[in-house]
Every structure is written in structure tokens, then in C-alpha cells.
Amino acid sequence: MLAGDGPRRATPRRVCCEGADRPALAPRGHRRARQRLRGPLTHRAYVREAPYADAPLSPQARIFLVAGGDDVANFIDEVADQRRFWLAQGVAADEIACYYAKPTRAAFRGDRAQYRRLFTELGGCYPASTALLRRHLAEASAHAPPFVYLYVTSHGLDGLIDEDAALPPDERALLDRYVIQLGAGPGSGYRARAILAAYRGGADPDDLLWTPDLMAALLGAFPPQTPKIVVLQGCHSGGFIVEPRDRTAEVRALSNLTIIASARFDRTSFGCDAGPEQTYFGGLFGALLRRLGEGKTPPEIAWRELFRELRRGVGELERREGATPSLPVFFSSAPEPEPEPDEAATAAGDG
User: Fold this and answer.
1) What is the number of structural domains in the chain?
2) Burial class (CB in 10 A: 0-12, 13-18, 19+), 245
């Protein structure tokens, strides 16, 4: 059977977040004051009027913010939040590329107020499809930017195929990989039957699914000296770094790479259901980014320190909710940033 396509599954496999029946939990100060709702009231009007950018990618693009899920507003909220943050740091608008997937009818019904509030922030964002993100990152690598920062928030899967599925080797290889959903692509970026139909119809397999090997190839096209910072928010996203069959060596071999994943290869992450404004991980990450990234470019941020605080905060939230630990993952092949002058002086006196 193809994962997520079986007729007896009441919930698609991609919606792997646990605790959907518990009260939404957000970091203190995370929920915003009520804002005026400006988006269309109905799903049909929203999908028709929600803008998808079709302009060429700016040659200056170096920050890529991707909301891949199409079934809750949390992911778009995280992307909009980060775009505001980077703009406030003095990053030019043409240096930021954002992506999202238009909501399903059920998603719009569940998060209507949030989608309507975010409507005006979607201008200039592209469809979140693997094919388009692949093309844009390839274009960006040709311009050799001073750094590349990639934030992807969505649902993650540990594969799209059950072990007993009878498929040719090439089709099994296509589906038997860790995947993060980019919902504006074929099959909403995760539906196995639709993905296979596109592949059998001649689609380039690298245009169909966001996987560790594709990500490694795209980041590997940037010059070795280019700092590469990647944050993946999604269930099983640690499978893009380390997983039992060790199919991610190409990712770890990249030079100047720093990567954070919200959950170990065999764990789910939390808060990606209707109700919370952002995921547990995404909300905490955004708060730490605002505190530790103020006035800095992505390569200047102390990512190890941010991760230590992030892991601690996520663990506290999960314990409070009685959730299975997601065990976020960190990997870096990049040199540590130089300490601030006051930090260096403090370290010098600690002998």
C-alpha cells in the first residue's frame, strides 16, 4: 500500500503532530493582540484572490522562507513572522523569497480567522512547490550570495511507501525517502499516487518531493565558502541529517553548513494542528531568533547557543503537555562565529 493513500486511513499520514485534542500551548507573549481581519470570508474567494507571485527571483535573494503545509495556518504564520523580523534587521525585501501553499477547504474552515489575518502578508510569496524552490535555489547559487538561509516549516514523513508495496525499483526509490511536504506541488507534495502518476507521466523526479538528497545537491551548488543555514520544522525532519540507513551523508559532507531539525528521524513534532498560531518549535525558534539575532545576519548568529535554548524550551513544553519528546537535532560543519568583544573579554578572564 502507498502511505497516505489507503481508503481506511481517516487522517492522512502527513498530519503526524500529536496532541491535537489538547489545548493549544504557545510561548508566553507569542499570541498577538486581536487584529483586523482583511482576507476574504469564504474559502473559494480566498483561494481565488490569494496572490501567488510569478515574478522572476531577485538576483539578490539569499533568505528563503517556505511554508509547505496546506492544512493549517501555523506554517504561513511562521514564515510571515520571520519575514517581518528579517526586514526589521535591515534585510532588503528583494533579498527575501517566501513560499506558501493555499489552504484546503477544511484548513480554511479550521483556521479561518488566522488565514484572513495573514492574507495581506502573502503578497510577493511564491507557490511552495519542490520544482520552483529547486529552480530558485539553483538560480541563487549561480549568483554566489554572501550566505544562504533556508527555513522550511511543514509536515514531515519518514517515507511515502509501506514495506509490502509492490513497485519497480525506481518507483520504490522515489517514494522510500524522508520527505517534507511542499503542498503547492503535485499531489500536495506528499500523496504517493499523485506523485507516481506525475513520475510515470515524465516529470523530473527532483521536481516532485523535497528530500535530503535533493537538498544536499542544491546546497552543494553554492560555493564551499558560502555559509549555509538550514532550519527544518516538521515531523521526522531529523531524517534529513541522520537516519538509520545513513542516506544523508551528502548533507553532512557539505562545507559551512549549519542545520537544525525540529524532531529526530523517528519522532514527531507538535503544534501543527488547527488552533495554535505557530508550532511549538516554530514559536520558540522565532522568539529566540528575535532575541539572539537582533542586529545580526544569519552567519553572525550563535546557532549552537540558540539550539541549546531551543531544545530546552521545546522539552519543557512537551513535558508540560505530556507529549513524547521530539528530540530536535543540530549539526554544523561551519566555524564558530567570533565572540562579541564583551564576551571575548569575559572568556579571557575565566582562566
Assistant:
1) 1
2) exposed
Q: What is the pLDDT of residue 340?
A: 59
Q: Is residue 158 part of a domain?
A: yes
| DSSP code per residue over 117-148 | HHGGG-TTPEE--HHHHHHHHHHHHHT--S-E
Q: Quick one: pLDDT at residue 29?
A: 36
Within 8 A by CB and 6+ apart from 94, the residues are 58, 60, 61
As to burial, measured by CB atoms within 10 angstroms (0-12 exposed, 13-18 middle, 19+ buried), residue 295 is exposed
Residue 54 lies in a domain: no
Main-chain dihedrals φ then ψ at residue 102, nearest 5 degrees: -65, 145
**CATH number of domain containing 224:** 3.40.50
Asked if 288 and 298 count as a contact pair (C-beta separation under 8 A), the reply is: no
Mean pLDDT score, 19-29 = 38
Give domain status of residue 62, yes or no: no
Residue 218 neighbours by CB under 8 Å, 6+ apart:
134, 137, 138, 141
271 alpha-carbon distance from chain centroid = 14
In angstroms, the Cα distances linking 323 to 158, 166, 288, 311 are 19, 35, 22, 14
d(CA 144, CA 66): 21
How far apart, in Å, are the Cα atoms of 247 and each of 66, 75, 176, 269, 293? 24, 27, 11, 22, 32
How far are the Cα atoms of 31, 114, 140, 273, 335 from residue 34, in angstroms, in the given order? Answer: 9, 10, 38, 20, 42
- pLDDT tens figures, 298-338: 999 999 999 999 999 999 999 999 999 999 999 999 987 66
Half-sphere exposure of 122 (CA within 13 A, CB side): 27
Sign of the C-alpha dihedral computed for residues 102, 105, 106 and 110 taken in this order: positive
Provide the residue range defining the domain that includes 320: 70-348
Residue 59 lies in a domain: no
Q: Are 326 and 248 in contact (CB under 8 A)?
A: no
What is the gyration radius of the CA atoms in the chain, in angstroms?
20
CB 310 within 8 A of CB 281: yes
- Picking from 67, 73, 70, 68, the residue whose alpha carbon sits closest to that of residue 24 is 73
